[in-house]
Amino acid sequence: MKPSALTASASIPSPRSLRFVTLLLTAALAWNLPTVHASRAEPTDLPAARLRQQGSVQLKQVGPYVERGSYRIHVLSKLGPAAWQLSDGTWLYRNYKADESEARGVLVVRFLDGRVTSLNLVTPERAAEMQTRDKEMPTVKPGHRVASAPASRN
C-alpha cells in the first residue's frame, strides 16, 4: 500500500464508526432525557405554592355545595357553624383543604347582603392577623359614627 492512501483512510472515519458514535450519543441522551422530562411533566400544585408564597388563595367553590352567591343559611347548613365570626360578618373555618390540591389552611367566607361574595383559603398566621385586627377595631352600631381625636395645632 502506498503511504498516502493509508494516511487518507485513517483521517476520514468510516460510515460504520460514525453510526456507532451516533448510536452511542443517542443512547446517552435518551438515558438522561426521561428524568428531565419527568421533572418538567410533574404537575405543580399551584394553589399550595400560592398559599405558601402569598398567604392566601382564592377558591371558586367549597365542595360541590358552596360557591359565590350562596346564601348564608346554605353555608351554615353545608359547612356548619364557623369557628370564628368577625365583626364584619366574615366567617372563618379551621383546617380546610382545597379541592385537588394539598393546600390547607383557614377557610374565609365573606358575605354581602346575606350572600357569599368571596371564598379564600388563608394561612393560620393570616387568619390570626385578621382576628387581631378585628379585635382592635372599634365596634360601631349601625347609624353611629366613630369620633376621631381632634388634630393637634402645634
The main sheet orders its strands as 1-7-6-5-4
Q: Architecture of the domain at 46-136, according to CATH?
A: 2-Layer Sandwich
Oligomer: single chain
- What average pLDDT do the residues reach? 79
User: What can be said about the biggest beta sheet?
Assistant: 5 strands, antiparallel
For the secondary structure, the number of strands is: 7
The H-and-E topology, N to C, reads as HHHEEEHEEEEH
**Kindly, what is the distance between the CA atoms of the first and last residues, rounded to a whole number of angstroms?**
110 Å
Which regions contain 5 or more consecutive residues with pLDDT less than 50?
35-39
Estimate percent helicity. Answer: 40-55%
- Give the CATH class of the domain at 46-136: Alpha Beta
Number of helices: 5
Q: From the alpha-carbon coordinates, what is the Rg to the nearest angstrom?
A: 32 Å
Q: Tell me the fraction of residues in β-strands, as a range.
A: 15-25%
Shape: elongated
CATH topology of the domain at 46-136: Beta-lactamase Inhibitory Protein, Chain:B, domain 1
Helix/strand-derived category reads alpha+beta
